[in-house]
Please model this.
Amino acid sequence: MTNRNNAVNNAQKSWLYRPENHKKLWWGFGLILAATVVVQLFVSVHGHFGFDGWFGFSAAFGFLSCALMVVFAKLLGYLLKRPDNYYDDDA
Amino acid sequence: MLELIFPPAFILILGAFLIGPIRAPLRPLIVLGAPLLTLYTIWQMGDGIQLTAQFLNYEIQLIESSPLRRLFATIFAIMAFVGGLFAFRQAKWWELAAAQAYAAGAIGVSFAGDLITMFLFWELMAIFSTVVVWCGGTEGARKAGIRYAIMHLVGGVLLKIGIEGVMVHTGSIEIQPIPLTNIDGWLILIGVLINAAAPPLSAWLADAYPESSPSGSVFLSAFTTKTAVLALILLFPGQQILIWIGLYMIFYGIIYALLENDMRRILAYSIVNQVGFMVCGIGIGTEMAINGASAHAFAHIIYKALLLMSAGSVLYMTGRRKCSELGGLYHSMPLTALCGIIGALAISAFPFTSGFISKSMISQSAADQHLMMVWLLLLAASAGVFLHAGIKFPWFVFFQKDSGLRPKDPPWNMRAAMVLLAAACILLGIFPEWLYRLLPYPVDYVPYTASHLVTQLQLLLFSGLAFFALLPLMRRTLTISLDFDWVYRRLILSLMNRLICLLSCLNTALRNASNRVFSIIWTYIGRHHGPEGMLARTWPTGSVVTWVVVLLTVFLLFSIY
Model:
């Protein structure tokens, strides 16, 4: 019974949520990412400071700075997060 | 040609007065008509001082126009119209009236030719934005509204003291760049920065805005912070300190938005983030930077309103606001999702959206001034915006998991307002010269170069990669994050409770000590003067007579000898 329900649910699930499509989505995304970097071979990127014209600089900088922000936020979260009814007993 | 020298703000104030008493079927006419008429008058005015009046022996300039002021007034009037369209069938009439008075304040500040006029309209905004917060109608909204009002009234008082100082010390009430050489300038700067949600007092924004109604947050996002941006451009262009304040706001907004679970609070934090870009641009202060800050304010008001409309539609249709309770709505609310995504792309400065043509001017101005550190931080921030608003908001609300909710798209007026703003985001992205023509200085900037397109796409898409790769680190929790408001909502409260406790302890101790001292004195006195005391003892008459006899005998003996 549960199995049949699951099968029905899977069939009703939209394309995006089916597990077998996750890999396709990641591949598609990866191809687009690669394309934005590869295209730099054909487009001359002129930086203002020199280093910002390096091959793939923006890609690496974007990824690393975001990773840093996420990790920093995560760490700060341990310090700052409180249950969302924290202020509810305010007078 | 009709010459209308009627202050544009007064049209909206009149509209606000009429919305209540007028018959309900005619209300939309005022809600939508007054902003359009205002827009017309804004564009009928020439530059320079247009209207003066007498106020407390000062000649105040009710209207002084310039391209910069017109740009801000234009977007405020457009928002009053589109926000009205979004709200007029769902919101209560008093919210519509308050919103119109609030917009009047913003437009009044835009055209204020002197500090007194600016202050009066500034306070009009503070009062009616508080009413808009209260229109959220919940207990949470009532309390947040009070905190919001206190914060803005304190800001207003500082601003007023500063303005009076300038009037006394320079004798001029003109709006012109004010040097930060004495306390007057600093007080004005602090008063304005409080409205811009600058640190440390930025918590009021994320505290109050998400408590308003679905339409209320749309109005709130547009006016207060952006009039502060305009005031900063007019009063403090090129003040270096603003660069660092702006950068702090940018990263504060990103980090807090990453930690947040409430979808409208995510967007509220991202207002602080975006205003940070403008404040930073004002700090850089070159013509390019001021152009960038102005263009960014214009573009930001549109896409932020669009994002809040999208979030407001979700809230209106589902009654839920927490990311952990939402997800998978793209299927049943396709238009809301599409508009939300367009807003999210615009805020992230994706090519062919309005953010791309405005934010990049600020970065470019930093590069032109060889401010490498600032430029790098702005670049990281641009990536961070895509992270916290560009993907996080649409992902957790419209995709993520299937929450099982199947709400429809909202009613037609809300859809129409979203479509209008989404179209504006894209059109401004494709035809940047429409916006560039309205900017205060001539624009010598070409946003669409192959190099800029490639670097921007790399930056944004790889921050997207970071988002999905680090998704486990961003699991939504049912939490809020402590902010500076903890100081006045908890610390001061608990310190006061402790003080009260300490005083009452001291009181008890003093009482006890004094009781003891009194009781010692009492016993001592009692010993001699009490009912049993020696001096209070009743002596029998006989003994007195005996003593008198003894005395008389002694006296007799003395007199004989």
